Every structure is written in C-alpha cells, then in structure tokens.
TrEMBL record:
InterPro entries: SAM-dependent_MTases_sf (IPR029063), SAM_dep_MeTrfase_SAV2177_type (IPR006764). One of its GO terms (molecular function) is methyltransferase activity. Keywords: Methyltransferase, Transferase. One of its GO terms (biological process) is methylation. This is SAM-dependent methyltransferase.
Length: 269
C-alpha cells in the first residue's frame, strides 16, 4: 500500500482540487494523485489538454501587462487565482511597477497556505480564502480593503473561473457584482470555456469535470459575451485565447483546442 502523500495541515488529498489540477497541467508540483487521476482522464479524451491551460495563462499575462503597462491600473484582484506558478499576476505587474497592489482569491486552502508563504515579505500583495460565488465576501474582506482603494480604478481578473459555476449559481450576477463595485475606468478580464457547436469532445470533457469538480459549463459565445454587460469590450473583443492581443509567445501556442475557450477585457465607462 502506498504511503499517504504529505500535505499542509487541513488539506484533504482524497478530493481533487481545481487549483491543483490546473497546477499539474502547468507543470507544477503542488498536486496529488487524486488530481493527477482527473488530469489523466482528461488527457485520454484530449491528449493536448495542457495546451489550453498554458494558453489561458498566456492570455492572462498579456491582460495584466495591458492593464498595468498601457491602461495604468495599479490595483488588481485575481479571482480564482489557483496555485502560484511561473509569472504570477503580481510578478508580471511588478515587472512594470513594483507598487501595484494585488489581491489573490481562491477557495482552496492549499492556495492560501502556499500563497502566504510565497508572499510573506511582500507588502503590496496578499492572498485571501474566499468563494468567487460570493463576491461580497471578496469585496468586503478586510485584507482586500486594506490593499484596494475602490475609489480608484481596479482591474479584476476572472480567468477560467465562471465556467466552474452552474447556471443556478448565477455567473452573470457574479460578474455584475464586481462591475457594480468598481468605479469608471476599471476593467474586468474574463476567460471562459465555450461550446463551439456540434463537437463530441464537449460532452466527454464536461462529464469528467462535472464528475470530479461539480459545476462545469461550456457556454455559447453569446452567453459569455453577456458577462460583459455594462462594460465596453476592449479590442480585439471576445476572441480565442491566442487572438487576444497576441505576441510571439501566443503564436507559438496556436492549436485547434483553443476553439474551446474565449477571452475578453471589458472597461467600465
């Protein structure tokens, strides 16, 4: 019988974690056998599944560079941030301006444990444990309020999180709650799995993820676009991951699997 895997206190290694599955696909080491089993099931269906995780991360990095380097945003909230990996949001932002304030949010306690260890000496960045389905819990958290001034523009990142909410959990309402809390000039970045039409892979991948992660939805383009209601879509609009402000890195990642995911950035007028 194999030895139990070592984990931080309070971490259940018998239940798969979205953050840890994503970590596995990004080449991280903070995942357990139960997470790798889910990843293996996905790879059986789509051998190149990791490309989507990498492409999503690339689009996120480019969005942060745009927000900080071009728009001038100096406050970021990363909702559903996942585990720390290469070129985190704060690392990308601080490469442009070390004074940018960043709040990471995730409901997985392992993210809190690793994030706090990583950021112990970082006065401009913190991580909180909260559920994206309850925006007020994030917006009113004392650690959020300590770093984020909601009287000034804020960039909110929701990369690959809303498709993990079932329709009855009101992802549109979640997006709207963040929009309504922000002043004009603020931005919201969203990436989301989409249903490209009659594709049998959609049902197979959905079945695996719903089995192990609960809610998981591929949604039509028009539904994803509705999450930007009240915002002005920044060019190039809602597009496939590699098409969102592409750079040489993104062109190297072009792959047919990217048809399954869209990304966009909305500005509050």
């Amino acid at each position: 019988m194999s030895e139990p895997e070592a984990a931080p206190a309070g971490i259940d290694t018998s239940v798969p974690s979205l953050a840890r599955i994503y970590d596995f696909f990004l080449g991280g080491k903070d995942n357990f056998a139960v997470d790798r089993a889910v990843a293996a099931d996905l790879v059986k269906i789509v051998p190149a599944a990791g490309i989507v995780a990498e492409a999503n991360r690339g689009a996120l990095r480019r969005a942060v560079r745009h927000l900080v380097g071009e728009v001038g945003i100096r406050q970021l909230i990363d909702v559903g941030s996942g585990l720390p990996t290469a070129e985190n949001v704060h690392e990308v932002a601080h490469g442009i301006d070390p004074g940018v304030r960043v709040v990471y949010v995730d409901n997985d306690p392992i993210v809190l444990a690793h994030g706090r260890a990583l950021l112990a000496d970082n006065a401009t960045t913190t991580v909180i444990q909260a559920d994206a389905r309850r925006p007020a819990e994030i917006l009113e958290h004392p650690d959020t309020r300590k770093l984020i001034d909601f009287d000034r523009p804020v960039g909110v990142v929701m990369a690959g999180i809303l498709h993990h909410m079932a329709d009855e959990e009101d992802p549109a309402g979640v997006a709207a709650a963040f929009r309504d809390a922000l002043v004009p000039g603020s931005h919201i970045f969203i990436s989301h799995f989409c249903d490209p039409g009659d594709d049998p892979l959609v049902d197979e991948m959905r079945a695996v993820l719903r089995r192990d992660q609960g809610g998981f939805e591929y949604r039509p383009r028009e539904v994803v676009e509705s999450y930007f209601a009240g915002l002005e879509l920044v060019e190039p609009g809602l597009v496939q991951l590699h098409e969102w402000r592409p750079d040489p890195e993104a062109r190297e990642q072009e792959h047919e699997l990217q048809r399954f995911m869209l990304a966009g950035l909305g500005r509050k007028p």
